[in-house]
Automatic annotation (TrEMBL):
SUPFAM superfamilies from the UniProt entry: Protein kinase-like (PK-like)
Molecular function GO terms recorded: kinase activity
Organism of origin: Marinobacter xestospongiae
Keyword Zinc: no
Name this polypeptide is given: 3-deoxy-D-manno-octulosonic acid kinase
Catalysed reactions, as listed in the record: an alpha-Kdo-(2->6)-lipid IVA + ATP = a 4-O-phospho-alpha-Kdo-(2->6)-lipid IVA + ADP + H(+)
Residues annotated as catalytic: 174
Protein family: Belongs to the protein kinase superfamily. KdkA/RfaP family.
Amino acid sequence: MTRNDSSPVREIQLPDQQAAILARDDMAQQVTTDWFDPDFWEDQARPVSTGGRGGAWFVHHRGEDWVLRHYRRGGLPAKLSRRSYLYSSQRQARSFAEFQLLLALQARGLPVPEPVAALCQRRSSWLYRAAILIRRIPGAVPLPASPRYREEALWAQVGATIRRFHDAGLDHVDLNVDNILVSGERVYLIDFDRCRLRQKPGGRWQASNIRRLRRSVEKRCRDLSEEDRRAFWQALSEAYAPHHS
């Protein structure tokens, strides 16, 4: 185990299991590779039913609520391997990268969940599997499930929130309505796999994020009338516009 008292993060090397864990300092003495196996938690783990490609569970542990997520492939690569990725280094493992990105976004005061621990486990000399544990945001639900779903004010709040992330340089490559959570009066973004902080905010990547979200709204919000979708998207767009930042 690498110790650095000035850092809230510890890296745990487990050579006998061909694994490494990145964990918040307060969890480093407890976490094991078993924590990333939903079967280990028995009835304290239940599948997340919305969003993603499956492979996510709500976990309850000693009064805390977490989300466990396995990294899974989609599309054609999934036909070859559902969970394995090409290994280059621990630092570049998808779970470790997302863990560190969450910490960086937290440091910027952005509304994201807190990472608990991340796993990188070798399957061979050139393949690995990854998983991450994140604190569950109390009372949070995806945008379409929010009681405020049909309020223009919420959509405007979503637009303003996305603007904050974009102004900080966050390129969210999977921005969709299921990765926008609402908890009471607060809006959060989640699921930062393959996302990154850009050195120079602005450009095509921001427009690409917004186009992806628009497609998601058209696909997932069909319970709204076309008129409402148009009005809500307008509220989001106006709040997102740069002059609102």
